[in-house]
TrEMBL record:
UniProt-listed NCBIfam families: hydrog_prot
Similarity field: Belongs to the peptidase A31 family.
GO molecular function: peptidase activity
Natural source organism: Mycolicibacterium sphagni
Pfam families: HycI
Name by which UniProt lists this protein: Hydrogenase maturation protease
GO terms of biological process kind: proteolysis
Keyword Hydrolase part of the UniProt annotation: yes
Keywords in alphabetical order: Aspartyl protease, Hydrolase, Protease
Amino acid sequence: MVGCGNLLRGDDGVGPVLVRHLWDRGVPTGARLVDGGTAGMDVAFQMRGAERVVIIDASATGAEPGTVYRVPGEELADLPPLQGLHTHSFRWDHAIAFARWALADACPNDITVFLIEAAAVEFGTDLSEPVQAAMDQVIDLLERDYLGPLRPTPGDDISVRFTDDGYMRLDAVLAASRFPSDAVAAMVREDDLWLIPLRGPRSGGLLLKQRNPAGDRSLLVRELVGDLPVTGVHPAFWDDAQQALRIPLGLAR
């Protein structure tokens, strides 16, 4: 996934800003995020060998700010010619045309473009409210259609292990599927330990730390569980209604 645009020009930076939000959420194995900025030729070469490419950029068509356009690959066959282009005038469509010319067979066939209609592109401004709302909508679409299918799915039998030194350990599949950003809020409620996924470290909370090359994670919970005799393996379950992992603290085995 490639976010294009100028971070210094308000809504024109929606592509790179979106990519940074996706990074905070956690990137599954098999996906790659690229901040393409305004370097169109670099964007073209980033496509080399990819199976699927998604480009996110701002648009200025005169439509209602925040309007989202999803341009599928079959509509990208007839792109503008490359003659007479200057590097500063490279747009997303020029990047695709250049990639097809420069990469030949290494250029992916499956390319989709999301365009978000800009409201303001003045220097030094933040994203406008309609563009911010549209960006969140596109993030949900990207998670549903592209990133979500790449995330592992835990089995029905979920468990975690509490250690003598106050840590809780989660296996790699559970961590990657439910806590892809590695940032969590943790609390004890009704004799259960609750872990609630956060969107990223900037949201606060606690960080799940990688403890081995397999991707298993650990979390220091000594202050939360206090003197409760929790050492051992505990069954856990995912609470869909609360969007939280719940670990009953009295069920060690």
